[in-house]
Amino acid sequence: MIEISNLSKSFDLSSRQRKEMGPDFRESKVYAVRDVSFEARPGRIFSLLGANGAGKTTTLRVVATMLKPSSGTVKVCGLDSVSQAADVRRKLGFLTGGTGLYARLTPDELLRYFADLHGMDRHRFEQRKQHYYDLFDINSFAKRQIGKLSTGMKQKVSILRTIIHDPEVLVFDEPTSGLDVITARNIIELIRQCREDGKTVIFSTHIMSEVEMLSDDLAIIHKGSLVYNGTYESFREGMQTPSLTEEFIRLATSAETP
Amino acid sequence: MKNSLVIFRKELKDVLRDRRTVYAMILAPVLIYPILITAFTQIMRVQSEKAQEKVLVLGIVGQALPPSFERLLEQQGRYQLIEGLEEDSASMASMLNDSLDAIFSFPHDFDQQLERLDQGSVTLYYRGTDDDIRGRLEGLSASMQQYYSAVRMEQMNINPDLIQPVRIERIDMSSSREKLGQTLGAIFPYFFIIFCFLGCMYPAIDLGAGEKERGTMETLLSSPASRLDIFLGKLGVVFVGGMTSAVLAIGSLALSIKFNTQSFGDLPEEFSQSLSSMLQFDTILLLILLLLPVAVFFASALLTLSITAQSFKEAQSLISPAMILVLLPSMVGFVPGIHLNNTNALIPIFNVSLAAKEVLAGTLQMGPFIITVLSLLALAGLGIVISLRFFKSERNVLPT
């Protein structure tokens, strides 16, 4: 379960950054996310839809405790993301579009590393690792350096790295960004499987087809603020335009109209 | 703390598989100095032998070769004479460029001048740009002075001691280790400071900016490891890189020097003994005591610069100017006459260079040394605090 209440996150601007914002810009900080609230529940997939720079990554980084909220609260499985940050991270699996793997390690070494950081006991680790090695067909390249693997192989390792410690909450930040169709499909399957396993899943995207395929719940974020938050079903029912893309554009445009 | 160790082990394994790091941390200090020093000393030795064995071709202006000079050259050996040259500066310059090493011009009655107890005058033409020939000619000139003085003393039946009323016997009481320390003592600290810096540099760039650039920092930050754990794990590896590199550089340099001095004739025994006394346990312990805080400081400073950069290249361009700041004070040991005192013991790097020189020469005074170590520890502590603060900053640690 992820509960986000009135989350705002601002970043201080350097004098160089202020100059880049133009002569009329007088603020000393910029808001990446402003007053955002939503809940992602177990056994459901929560999609965070938004254009590039809308605040999706910032929101997910706050959930993953990489960033501290400027105001508001984030709770993961009832744990506060600031005061219980390490406990929150124990419950999390985090995956980005970039595989985020160490090229000079082997899949075996990488998985052992993250299992150690999560404090997994060796027996449970070996059991889970072997189960997923068989499932994802990793055995044949488990001892090769990751840098020498194909993108598809790397993505399999990356997925396994995310779920090896059996996290309750999975955070996917644009997980299919830059991936080929087949590899992206593996990720989609993983997200679905996590829902089947009763995990809380939140994923950010700007790809409408992924939203259509996966969403149980949906939030649309535009320029740091939510312009929609509800179930995907009710969103479909309330659409005033024929397609999801057009509806997204309509909501974004109307949010900018005073 | 357990996670710090997990991160340390992984980062160490990771950097040791990086060719750039292995080269800078291990191969360069181990290989470069033996190769450079061996090549340099071999070239020097061959050149020196060639210069000593070379038969100098001396031209004599006119037919005025004094028999006394001819006898002297016969005693000395390795000279060939060509007589009958014309005293013309253009043709003499041309011949010195071409076939002759030097030209002597004697007055026709040179030996008679000496017999009359007058002062014999000789003009020597040579090219000062050739060090080996100049050295040989200086030796020949000194021999001429000695030879003709002895002849004159004998001619006048004078005891040579009469014109040398004072005989000064100079006894250098400084040990060969002290003498060696003044030369090698300047070189060693320079190398260990530079290699400590270089050994820290690549791991720091790789584990800071490199990790951000590859997108693995986000993955690591989402693990249960705290920022402190991550920082300590990385700092440990960068520190080990610096220490390894510095210790290997010193060891390799010492062995290279020891090995190469054996190629020289009368020096090696004393030299080897001094070198051995320099590299005794207590000396090494004191050097490591100096090196530890320096390596911690370099590790924290370089990790700080690296973590503020967004890419490997950006980190390199930030760190390169910092190297100049380290290079200059580490060269202070080469300046003669500067010794470690309570004031300069507070100047970072400068103090390491001087303290290491005193340690190696065996002339260390404990007061300034303790101040040096304490000031370096304070510097290392400050480096860690600042670096950790940078590491905890969201702006620095996350890729934009």
Give structural notes:
The complex is a heterodimer of chains A (258) and B (400). Chain A has a six-stranded mixed beta sheet with strand order 6-7-8-3-9-10, with helices on both faces. Chain A has a four-stranded antiparallel beta sheet with strand order 2-1-4-5, with helices on one face. In chain A, helix 7 (181-196) links the parallel strand 7 and strand 8. Chain A is an alpha/beta fold and 258 residues long. The relative contact order of chain A is 0.18. Chain A has ten helices and ten strands. Chain A has helices spanning 15-20, 56-63, 85-91, 107-117, 122-136, 151-163, 181-196, 208-214, 232-238, 244-256; strands spanning 2-12, 29-40, 45-49, 71-76, 79-80, 92-96, 169-173, 200-205, 217-222, 225-231. Chain B is mainly alpha-helical and 400 residues long. Chain B is built from 15 helices and four strands. Chain B has helices at residues 2-16, 19-53, 67-76, 89-98, 110-115, 131-155, 176-214, 216-221, 227-261, 268-278, 281-308, 312-330, 350-361, 366-392, 394-397, and strands at 56-61, 79-85, 102-105, 123-126. In chain B, helix 3 (67-76) links the parallel strand 1 and strand 2 (79-85). In chain B, helix 11 (281-308) runs antiparallel to helix 13 (350-361) and helix 11 packs parallel to helix 14. The longest helix of chain B has 39 residues, at 176-214. The two termini of chain B are 28 Å apart. The model of chain B has no long low-confidence stretch (mean pLDDT 85). The A-B interface holds A 11-12, 61, 64-68, 85-86, 89-90, 92, 94, 96, 98-105, 109, 113-114, 116-119, 145, 161, 171 and B 2-3, 6-7, 10, 13-14, 17-18, 214-216, 218-219, 221-226, 394-395, 398.
